[in-house]
Amino acid sequence: MNSLLLRTLSIRPFSFLIIAEICSQMAMNMLHFVLIVVVYELTHSNTAVAGVVLALTTPAIFFGIPAGAYVDRQSKKTILLYTNIFRMLLLIPFIFFSTVLALVYLLAFCIAVIAQFFIPAETPMIPILVKKQFLLPANALFGMGLYGSVLTGYALTGPLLILLGKNNIFIFLSVLFLIASIFIWLIKVPKHQEIIEKKRNNTSIDIRGEVKTAFSFIVKTQGVYRSLFLLTLSQILIFIFAVIGPEYAVKVLGITVSEFPLYFASPAALGMVAGSFLIGNFLHRISKTSLATVGVFLSGFGILLLPFGVKTGLKNVYDIVALSFMLGIANAFVFVPSNTILQEETAEEIRGKVYGALNALVGIFSLIPILIVGVLADFFGVTAVLVVIGILILLFGVIRVLLHRGR
Q1: 353 near 213, Cβ under 8 Å?
Q2: Could you please report the per-residue DSSP string of 40-53?
């Protein structure tokens, strides 16, 4: 590992944040897949699965920016602590009522509402705990932790579902949120940051004014709105795969839904870890814009090849592992530089609102695609949906290159 990465990881408060992130993100991603499995096995419907994804994404539309404005006025450490605790408590009803579809949707929605306060506090904590020269390696490590937790979580979801059952697994997820809470509590925030947060706590919050300020800043700052667009697109693609993943596993790959994390989601997460490691070790001197563009093209080619590979000779499911690994690397090339640009070009007092805007954008712009993709997959099949998505991503990559050259 590069000395820069090691030096960044040696910052104790940041390392505590990484550990908390791994635990909370592992719990959250495992919860997503568990809910998808539960709903799919109850209904055998892509549309019903889309309902779970929507329950987890639509709160961002209504709470994303207001939550970001609130976070900017509060201690981010405190926000992270309580959001983990509240999500832990909301998992308890799942132990007894996981077969009640309406309650599954409701609890998923409530957990997603809490997440709207968690997300604008988590990533913006990084510039508080590390200096500017460590931002790119810190985001690389954060990406490795984030998607490493996805890798571990998805790899464990199937075995844990078999071992613990659909009820007891929620106890395990609660424990993960508890561990995350403990490590957040251990983080020592710099003194000057505590003083700043105390001053902000004494000021009133004008939500309308805060929203106006955030959007005005985003529109006027090219690096910020381009990074927000890329991060939004990346997250939408993940949600789309969550919707069509079960059917892709069963009807295209010929595997069970429970095996899908092992053969697709886990390699993608491992690719994200590998891509983040490459950026932090060897590619940190390359333009962040160029890295993101490469990520877009890799995503397009990877998605386009997923259905064709199975039909044209990639008969072994392990060949799909290679494609999903490439998609993970592609996502890293978008995630790490885009987050770094956001943190470099936003002041601390507005950063929460910017990430709140990101949540809102993901919620707004993923709503229709998720609904359409679920319905289209039911009527026309997963293969056709993947081909169209792959072509659209490649076209966007071409447009991005032309716009960049035209500057």
Answers
A1: yes
A2: HHHH--HHHHHHHH
Low-confidence ranges of the chain (pLDDT < 70): 1-4, 46, 150-151, 154-155, 192-207, 258, 261, 308-318, 367, 370, 405-407
Domain boundaries, position 29 = 3-405
Contact 360, 65 (CB under 8 A): yes
Tokens (6 digits) for 247: 């059917």
Query: What's the pLDDT tens digit per position in 84-108?
Result: 999 999 998 888 877 778 888 888 8
**pTM value?**
0.70
**Total domain count, the chain:** 1
CATH code: domain of residue 57: 1.20.1250.20
d(CA 80, CA 47): 33
Distance CA 375, CA 50 (A): 9
CA dist list (Å): 146 to 17, 27, 151, 211: 11, 11, 9, 28
